[in-house]
Amino acid sequence: MFKGSIVAIVTPFKEGKVDEEAYRELIEFQIENGTSAIVPCGTTGESATLSMDEHTRVIQIAVESVNKRVPVIAGTGGNSTSEAIELTEYAKKVGADGTLQVTPYYNKPTQEGLYQHFKAIAEAVPLPQVLYNVPGRTGLNMLPGTVARLAELPEVVAVKEASGNLVQMAEIVQLAGDKITLLSGDDNVTLPLLSIGGKGVVSVVANIVPKETADLVSAWEEGNVERAKELFYDLFTLCQAMFYETNPIPVKTSLALMGKIGPEMRLPLCPMAPANLEKLKKALQDYGLI
Questions:
Q1: Which pTM value belongs to this model?
Q2: Domain with 36 in it: what CATH number?
Q3: Is 290 part of any domain?
Q4: How many CB atoms are located within 10 Å of the residue 164 CB?
Q5: Residues 6+ apart with CB under 8 A from 224
Q6: What are phi and psi of 197, to 5 degrees?
Q7: In angstroms, rounded to a whole number, what is the distance separating the alpha carbons of residues 290 and 288?
C-alpha cells in the first residue's frame, strides 16, 4: 500500500509558530519531485514539541495541500495509547490515508504490551497503520515476532524499521513479508534494505533531495541495480550529513541554507555547533545544493 520514497517532512517554524505558508511550499516541492507519500508529524517533524492543536493543524494542512495526489501518513503515535487513539481518530476524520505509529517511548512496555497497544489503536480506528520501530530514540526494540503477530491485523500494513539491524529486518520479511511492507527508517541503509525485500524508505534526506531519493527507489524497482547503487553512493555522504547532529537539526539547517524555510527549531533542539555546521555546508556545496 505504501512504498517508494516517503518523506518524513519537517515542520517549519516562524516566530515560534508553525509557518503554514512555508510548509505548503515544502509539500509542493516534494510532490513535484516524485515523492511517493508525505509523513507529517514524525520525528523529523518535531512532533514531540508540537502542542495538540499544532499537531492536528499540521496534519490538516498536509491532507488539504496534498489533496489526494499522494498518500498522507500522519504521525499519530505516542507513549499513551489513549492519546494515540485520539490523534489517529482526528487523522482519519480529516482524510489521512494512514498513520505512522511509533513504539511507546520511556514507559518501555513488554512485547505483549506493544502488541496490545497497536492492536487497541487498530481496533479503535480502522485506518492503515505503519508501525515505527526506532529503539535508539525510544529505548525499546520491537522484535520480528511481534511485528509478525501485528501483521495479522488488517490495519497493520507496513513497518518503518530504524533499528539499523539488517538481520532483524530480514527476519521480518521471512516471517511476514507476504503480509506487511518493510520500509527503511534510515537513509543510510535504504539500498541494503531494498535488497532483502524492502519496498521503500521513510526518508529524512528526501526533504532536500526528493527527486534523487525517489529515483533511487524507482531504479531498484525497475531492476536497474547498477543505477540504484550509483544513486545510493552519490547520496551516501549527504545521508550521513543529516545525522552530524540529532535529526532534524541538520536537515532543517540545510533547508534554511537552501532558502526554503527559516532556521527555527524548538528547544531542546538548538542550532548546530560551528564545526558541524561547516561540515554540513561543505556536504551541501559538494552536492550543488547551496
A1: 0.95
A2: 3.20.20.70
A3: no
A4: 14
A5: none
A6: 115, 5
A7: 6
Return the residue matching grid coordinates 555547533. 273
Domain that holds residue 152: 4-224
What's the domain count of the chain?
A: 1
For the CA atoms of 108, 179, 94, 204, what is the dihedral angle to 10 degrees? 60
Average pLDDT over every residue of 159-176: 96
- Active site members: 132, 160
The SS3 assignment for 233 reads helix
Q: What is the pLDDT of residues 134-164, one digit of tens each?
A: 999 999 999 999 999 999 999 999 999 999 9
Identify whether 13 is part of a domain.
yes
Please check whether residue 132 lies inside any domain of the structure: yes
Hey, which residues does 58 pair with through a beta bridge?
none
Amino acid at 29: F
What are the residues whose beta carbons fall under 8 Å from the beta carbon of 81, sequence distance 6 or more?
104, 117, 120, 121
Residue that is written with C-alpha cell 490538516 in the block: 60
Grid coordinates in use for 64?
A: 488539504
Return the amino acid letter for 181: T
Decide if 289 is inside a domain.
no
Mean pLDDT over residues 24-37, rounded?
Answer: 98
